[in-house]
Amino acid sequence: MIVASAPAKIILFGEHFVVYGEPAIVLAIDKRARASAELRTDKRIYINSVDLGLSGSFMEEQFQPELGGEEARTKLEPIKIATQKVLHFSKKQVGVSIEVESSIPVAAGLGSSAAVAAAVVVAVSRLLDAKLSKEEVFRFAYEAECFVHGTPSGIDPTISTYGGVLLFQRDRGFKSLNVEGDIPLVVGDTGMERSTGEQVAIVRERRKHFPSIIDHVIKTGREVALKAAKALETGDLNALGELMNINHALLCAVGASNEPLERLVYAARKTGALGAKLTGAGGGGCMVALCLPEKLEKVAEAIKRAGGTTFIARKSSEGAKIES
Ligand code: PMV
Questions:
Q1: Which residues contact 249 (CB under 8 A, 6 or more apart)?
Q2: pTM value?
Q3: The CATH number fitting domain 185-313, selected from 3.30.70.890, 3.30.70.20, 3.40.50.1000, 3.30.1220.10
């Protein structure tokens, strides 16, 4: 049996604007999805998602649910796509059993589906002895992600594949940022699941109604991300926090925030966070606060009191990999 894992992510700057070609900053964190893969004696792709309590097997386009009925089919489909891509690449006609476990909250802006897809691609490719480049791992995970989100920018499968801290730009690739110091972050989860596709559609609609205004907001997002890249490389946490607050205001302007997120963002700021913003698609899901290390616990407490669940996130340089 082969086990692989891939990291969750936090978008620090530029979510949504990245869909329109502007740069975003994303970091991999120390929460991972794990996938194990085993050969089968038949030609089926069997998938068990332990955390979602869903399982079943695919034979070509036929699906046989085991746990979770028809819902299982939709939720497990991206994992099947990722597996099929590797099977096709390897030219082997075998069946595979996959088990997925993840400590990443689902539909919360932390890139859980991309982390699962990247872990599955790496586990299955090792199982089938298919030598994939990182670029191929990214591409197969991206294709699985397209089933979940329609036309994603590719930021999530990129960070899950490569890890680290990246300045990412759609259709242009990414640059690794050289961040030496710690970036002390508290993540607050509103507990509201939402669809990235729907959130992206909300922003698209607003841009349709007010193109000249929203295009300015998007361009300002670019300036914020580029200044933030410099602040990260020089370790200027105060500037970084202020830029996060500005970025959050821009995300409000395009329609990505909501009341539960605002409550958590303001609770964090009031307790002394250097900056706080929603992260990912918004409309629920998670926010993130940057704090001096000695304030992390206090800010986490305040976010909890405002209705969120929290964890302290650490940056991780490790992308998708085989577990030893
Ligand atoms: O799926 P999430 O919540 O991690 O958000 C992805 C970031 C967006 O910019 C909103 C969409 C995208 O494809 O980049």
A1: none
A2: 0.94
A3: 3.30.70.890
